[in-house]
Amino acid sequence: MSILQTAVTAKAHTNIALVKYWGKADQSLIIPTNDSISLTLDHFYTTTTVRFDAHLTADEITLDGLTLPTDGQQRMRHFMDMIRHEAKITTFAHIETANHVPTAAGLASSASGFAALAGAAAKAAGLSTDRQYLSRLARRGSGSASRSLFGGFVHWHAGHDDASSFAEPLTEKVTWPIRMIAIVTSRAEKKIGSTNGMQASQSSPYFADWVKTANADISPMTAALFKEDIKSVGEIAEHNAMSMHATTLSAEPPFTYFNSGSLQAMQAVQDLRLTGVNCYYTMDAGPNVKVLCEAADVPAILARLQPLFGSYNLVVAKPGPGLTYL
Ligand code: 2P0
Fold it and tell me: Which InterPro entries match (predicted)?
């Protein structure tokens, strides 16, 4: 009882995938069809406080001080039910979340959100705070959250069941000055969320090839990250992202996350490369483009992108840390 009343606050950062997660082998347990690799980012994070309270008749959830709409609450309530099941308790909780992820930058707040919630809820419920266990819990909130438990470069092993599907760090403290520049090409809410988008992509005749491509990218990407080889990292990440997006274009019915700004941004990155700048693009489940490069090349890249997109639409991020308790 006394343990359950303690408020626990956890902080987790969002991540960008260099080898993408796109497809589920098990929808309910969130077991992915392929392994993925990501970079955890600084600056963009979520803090979540969980406090169990025997007086509550339902979980009380606020985001940035406001009560979440019912839709948004449902996924978190479902997650909390899983925590209660794990901890063999029936008590509901106060959950306060603050998001420091600019939604406009097209970075997933579900990754940092469910990583922070997993960390805070597990500790508040008296469960283990072993990172591998927390990664498995976070995965069941949102797949990409499994990677946000760790800092730096992270590998999510697809596995084949709940116990074998978790992330682990490749290098938690990255000293390599790798950077990601987000180019915001739209501030509108995305039309097809990741969960629905990846399910739709699984109707593509090329989906099986996507899974093969992604799994085959893991070993060379890992080697390139350890070598701090921006050219190889960028080339693999770019090809991997376009292979993922090919499954949207070939889905039945087809759809795309690209808008005209996305194409313009990718073209600008290709043009910069022709001038000798090592920069590469990747895209997630939205129209914004993310550029991978080294810190020394950021000024030249920004100089090229600013007239096209405006400095307000360019966000630079570096490697960030894993879960911490505040
Ligand atoms: C990724 N994305 O690896 C990929 C690339 C988006 C594109 O992980 O259904 O929000 O909650 O498990 O984790 C976004 O997917 O999906 C994502 P669910 P999630 O970063």
Answer: GHMP_kinase_C_sf, Mev_decarb, Mev_diP_decarb, MVD-like_N, Mvd1_C, Ribosomal_Su5_D2-typ_SF, Ribsml_uS5_D2-typ_fold_subgr
